[in-house]
Amino acid sequence: MIAIDDISALSSHYDLVVVGAGPAGLSAAARAADLGLSVLLADENPAPGGQIYRAVTTTPVVQRDILGEDYWLGAGIAARFERSVASYAARCTVWALGPDETSPGAFELGLSLGSKARMISAAQVILATGAQERPFPIPGWTLPGVMTAGAAQIALKSAGIVPAGRTAIAGCGPLLYLLAGQLAAAGTEIVAVLDTTPRANWAKALAALPDFLRSPYLAKGLKLMAKARRSLRFVSGVTGLAAQGDRQLSGVRIVRGSTAETLACDTLLLHQGVIPSVNLASAAGCALDFDETQHAFVPRVDAWFASSVGGIAIAGDGAGIGGAESAALRGEIAAFDAARKLGRLSEAERDRQAAPFQAELTRRLRGRRFLDLLYKPAAQFLAPPADETIVCRCEEVTAGQVRDAASRLGVTGPNQMKAFLRCGMGPCQGRLCGPTVVELIAQTRGTTPAETGYYRLRPPVKPVTLAELAALPPTDEATKAVVR
Amino acid sequence: MSQLGNSADVIVIGAGIHGCSTALHCALRGLSVILIEKDHAGRHASGVNAGGVRQLARHVAEIPLSNASMALWHDIENLVDDDCGFTSDGQVLVAEDEADLAQCRARVDDLNLRGFHHEEMIDAKELREIVPAVSETCPGGVISRRDGAAIPLRATQAFKRKAQSLGVDVREGVKVTKVEPDGAHWRVVTDAGNLVAPRIVNAAGAWADRIAADLGEPVPLEVIAPMLSITAALPAFIKPVVILRGRKLSFKQFGNGTVLIGGGYLGRAIRDENRTILDWHKLASNVRTVWELFPIMRGAPIVRSWAGIEARMPDDLPVFGRSARHEGVYHQFGFSAHGFQLGPGAGAVMAEIIATGRSNVPIDGLGIARFATQAGSAAHSAR
After folding, report:
1. Do B280 and A410 make contact, defined as CB atoms within 8 angstroms?
2. Nearest CB to A463: which of B151, B284, B301?
């Protein structure tokens, strides 16, 4: 691995640029480098691992059983990448991805590192931007003291920090139980796990149960669930939540059917599953489809994870949630195909070398459908019923405003909604409101999220300062013309 | 009105601010109207432009139309039941040096001779009062005090909704494939059936050359994609819209603190895919001008850049008025990246011409006939 810590040290062109250093990105970059491609792996974080293996090479949490054995699998993936000859730019933001107008078929990427920006080009791109937590808008979720479970996990992994005081964890999905277990092991006082899994989901998920029973998810899931249930107070069948407090969280109101109670707490962690992080793919023009099972917009990819834009592949959870092990496999498979597209592997050779990874991927994904169906969030947590619930945190737009614009002003989609309410126009570019706004419009107009569509994403996908942009080397274009 | 019918007094093709405004004004005059749009109202140039409501620095041929429009902008809520986000804090053209300033003065003198008084010279002192953040070296400029800005998509959709409330049959998601004669009328062939009317208006923006070509009036229309950027919210530091005379820049801070940066730098439009591709090297030049003139902006994060798909004519003037060849055909396109302000007024004038055959607002120099001689080959290359 060649560490790049100054933007001027980047080459102006790579065979392959991989974005994101989670399991998919690390595996794709290592594999592609082994196959002889010139590779840059660009990642925003200070160390490899992505979210699931965040800080696996640097974490201060040394007691292995706190984060669990699965976490430490990431050390092997990171170590293999470090042995490769790929270049690695940490703390590097990729803010633009589009066609390289000077070289047909190639791409131009805008990068920032150390407060400097630069445009480089790549023949192939693999986006391994992973997943993000599904927004969980409830009344009061913007109060200090309320955060996402994922944020708490970042603090734990990267800095060994856990919430102080009484902590409640609410929501659904396998990661909720994992995090509850990790935080409890690290010494957090967890006053309750508030499970919002709708009881009706069990019936829907039942048909997918046989596959799940033969899947690697089963053993892991049962272990997590059993551990959490054994040691923590579990409240199931939660149908309504509201964070309460005056300027600071003081408690959470819990509704279970017709009964309600308030639980005092200092921290409330929210989580209702993860969805693909699609902003960069979408801004690059990759087509998205609404996946009914995962209930999320997912980039359209083929068996090699190639997107609708020739030359851009999407590996890992960014192309549909499959979990860490499957992400690594998908990274490998996408890298084989990148090598084939660049003429380094024949089609037959690609197929032969990728076959074992594909077989393992099929095995790993078995049972996923059961989890998706079981942990699909309830309607009231996707589209908040209380009008005053804030939906877009950047621009402070409420659910009531979105419903009103959709009905009274006839706004049919999220892109028009931006012009009326500014939702999705803040610095997060709709990451935290997009799915909710789509859900509210669909519900109000009696359509589906698929028909409603998603935000058109505009670059820069992550903010870049005016000074950085102004200082783009003006000679870049000239240099490129000379090089090629 | 004919809600489910396929004929009307007027068919307007294109629901940008121009098509919506013309449809609205035709309805106000009692005409039945079908308004057709291939995407949704304001999807392209009308919805994603900088929102400048500007009379400043316009070509003299457009000034009468622009004047008619400005009167409507200042009473916009009465017209469309929505304030369209319109604010009027003036627009200022900044001269960067004395040579620049001399040209400004010549322009304002010329306008005054022609009887137009909306542009006024300002000296360095007044410039600094109005735009305190501008660099010390700028010696003055020109101001148009009644100018301002509005929110483009909101304004366009307000025109659409008002038109609808007056009975206009708005059909979004319907694509015109051909326009042809049908006896004494015009048949508009769409992917959702045929429509017939004695009068049609071509307000199809960046796609209007195709309609014009069907009518045997090819035009050298260029499809362009002017790029814009917006920053995160900053403390308030500037009220009017600022444009430069020499270098390309337009600049506006909204009430919420975000700053819009434009200047007509072009990306690439792919009109058949409704898509644009940005050119970051040109955007870098664009923001470098801001970096030099407004030091306060240097650390501002750019949160979004984009480009709309617009039509530009070789002389940067719109094609506006009757067809040169056919009775009952009207053109209203090619506003060359400065048509947003003209929308309300141009729609009123167009509706007047359609309904009465004439208008007191002079539109000399804007007719399609000016492209008749060079049309054939140029239009071909524009496709």
Report:
1. no
2. B301
Flag whether B71 is in a domain: no
CA atoms within 13 A on the CB side of B241: 27
Q: How many angstroms separate the CA of residue B265 from the nearest CA in chain A?
A: 14
Q: Determine whether the interchain pair B281/A119 forms a contact, defined as Cβ–Cβ distance below 8 Å.
A: yes
**For residue B259, which residues of chain A lie inside 8 Å, CB to CB?**
none
Nearest to A470 among B153, B288, B301 (CB): B288
- CATH number reported for the structural domain that contains residue A33 in this entry: 3.50.50.60
Query: Where among B263, B297, B312 does a domain terminate?
Result: B312
Check residues B346 and A234 and name the one with the higher pLDDT: B346
**Interface contacts A/B by beta carbons within 8 Å:** 95
Cα separation, A268 vs A238, whole angstroms: 15
Task: Please give the model's pTM, rounded to 2 decimal places.
Answer: 0.91
Q: Confidence band (pLDDT; 50, 70, 90) for A483?
A: very low
Q: Please answer yes or no on whether B47 and A419 come within 8 Å at the CB atom.
A: yes
- Which residues of chain A does B278 touch, with a Cβ-Cβ cutoff of 8 Å? 96, 98, 459
A-chain residues near B161 (CB < 8 A): 409-410
In-domain check, residue B63: no
A446's CB contacts (< 8 A; 6+ apart) are: none
B57 part of a folded domain:
no
Whether residue A285 is predicted with pLDDT greater than 70 in this model: the reply is yes
End residue of a domain, out of B312, B345, B374: B312
Close Cβ partners of B133 (under 8 Å, ≥ 6 residues apart) = B237, B238, B294, B295, B296
Distance CA A116, CA A470 (A): 10
* Contact with chain B for residue A463, Cβ under 8 A: yes
**Terminal-to-terminal C-alpha distance of chain A:** 26
Q: Which of B157, B161, B281 sits opposite A472 (nearest CB)?
A: B281
Q: What is the pLDDT of residues B98-157, one digit of tens each?
A: 999 999 999 999 999 999 999 999 999 999 999 988 888 899 999 999 999 999 999 999
pLDDT band at B378 (very low <50, low <70, confident <90, very high): very low
What CA–CA distance (Å, rounded) separates B355 from A465? Answer: 52
Span B304-329, average pLDDT: 96
Say yes or no for a CB contact (<8 Å) between A466 and B297.
yes
For residues A54 and A61, give the distance between their C-alpha atoms in angstroms, rounded to a whole number.
11
Same domain, A183 and A294: no
With CB atoms and an 8 Å threshold, state whether A98 touches B277: yes
Which chain A residue has the Cα nearest residue B277? Answer: A98
Which residues of A fall within a CB distance of 8 Å from B299?
A: 465-467
Contact A307, A300 (CB under 8 A): yes
ipTM confidence score:
0.85
Helix A324-341 crosses helix A347-365 at what angle (to 10 degrees)? 170
| A residues 269-298 lying closer than 8 A (beta carbon) to B | 285
Question: CB A466 to CB B303 under 8 A?
Answer: no
Q: Is B204 found in the same domain as B104?
A: no
Characterize the bridge pairing of strands B222-231 and B266-270: antiparallel
For residues B200 and B62, is the Cβ–Cβ distance under 8 A?
Answer: no
Q: C-alpha angle A350/A355/A359, rounded to 5°?
A: 155
Helix, coil or strand: residue B363: coil
Q: Does A110 lie at the interface with B, CB-CB under 8 angstroms?
A: yes
Question: Model confidence over A1-35: pLDDT tens digits?
Answer: 999 999 999 999 999 999 999 999 999 999 999 99
CA distance B257 to chain A (A): 12
A99–B277 C-beta distance less than 8 A? yes
